């Protein structure tokens, strides 16, 4: 009889309410920790082997202070809008891309370590007269250039491609070598071997991709040490540490 009563008492016992709440919270929390650790692991692995996954602010592109269309300035052929329709000027004539070489704006790329960012005055040299007044980007540009009567201000362009601070990368020898050895150029959309003179813009595609076709410039190559060393080895360039590290 006593054993029967003890069994009934055990059956009448219930799990405390606080424990019922705590158990699923701990379960969900454990899953959350696993998810966070998995995301961090993916970020570290991809960041080590290639480009980081676009989380925690590590994007491969940025919104610039002023929308600069490389497709218009550096591209070739007829311009089209997002729907694939031909873009027209004020006279309803089809617009053609300018096909400018990279050196038209990035003027130190063939002579110095950096490529150089054009000052706002260089942009204003053309756009104080070229382009409709209704254009929002051109209005911003003219304001920064002081054309509209206000104080001139520099444009704080955001850097898309960045090398680590301990890496010394000099543009000039790379442009010079690739210009003389077009077979080593990568990511080129044109047949560089069929051209009498290879423009720097084609050599730039090796690391920067086809910028002329980008509506918004983004980093397309991881530019990790292994990629640089492989390229140097393939082209009989120095691979000792002092060549790139300071």
| Through-space gap between termini | 88 Å
The amount of beta strand, in percent, is: under 5%
Per the principal axes of the C-alpha atoms, what is the gross shape? extended
Helix content: 25-40%
Helix/strand class: mainly alpha
Q: What is the succession of H and E elements?
A: HHHHHHHH
Q: Uncertain spans, ≥5 residues at pLDDT below 50? A: none
Mean pLDDT over all positions: 82
What's the count of strands?
A: 0
Described by strand count, sense and barrel closure, the largest sheet is:
none
Number of helical segments with 4 or more residues:
8
Work out the radius of gyration.
29 Å
Describe this structure in words.
39% of the residues lie in helices and 0% in strands. With 246 residues, it is mainly α. Among the domains are: 118-156, no CATH class; 171-243, no CATH class. The termini are far apart.
Q: What secondary-structure arrangement, pairings included, does this model have?
A:
Elements: H1 2-12, H2 17-49, H3 70-73, H4 120-127, H5 136-145, H6 171-180, H7 200-208, H8 225-234
Helix pairs in contact: 4-5, 6-7
């Amino acid at each position: 009889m006593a054993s029967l009563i003890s069994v009934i008492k055990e059956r009448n016992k219930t799990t405390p309410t606080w424990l019922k709440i705590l158990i699923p919270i701990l379960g969900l929390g454990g899953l959350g920790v696993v998810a966070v650790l998995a995301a961090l692991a993916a970020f570290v692995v991809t960041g080590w082997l290639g480009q980081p996954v676009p989380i925690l602010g590590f994007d491969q592109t940025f919104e610039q202070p002023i929308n600069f269309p490389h497709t218009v300035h550096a591209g070739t052929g007829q311009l089209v809008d997002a729907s694939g329709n031909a873009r027209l000027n004020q006279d309803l004539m089809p617009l053609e891309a300018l096909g400018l070489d990279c050196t038209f704006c990035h003027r130190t790329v063939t002579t110095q370590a950096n490529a150089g960012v054009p000052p706002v005055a260089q942009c204003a040299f053309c756009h104080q007269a070229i382009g409709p007044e209704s254009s929002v980007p051109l209005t911003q540009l003219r304001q920064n250039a002081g054309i509209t009567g206000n104080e001139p201000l520099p444009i704080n362009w955001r850097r898309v491609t960045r090398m680590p601070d301990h890496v010394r990368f000099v543009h000039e020898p790379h442009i010079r070598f690739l210009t003389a050895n077009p077979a080593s150029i990568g990511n080129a959309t044109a047949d560089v071997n069929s051209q009498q003179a290879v423009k720097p813009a084609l050599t730039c595609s090796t690391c920067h991709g086809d910028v002329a076709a980008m509506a918004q410039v983004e980093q397309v190559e991881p530019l990790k040490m292994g990629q640089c060393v492989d390229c140097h080895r393939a082209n009989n360039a120095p691979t000792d540490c002092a060549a790139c590290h300071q």
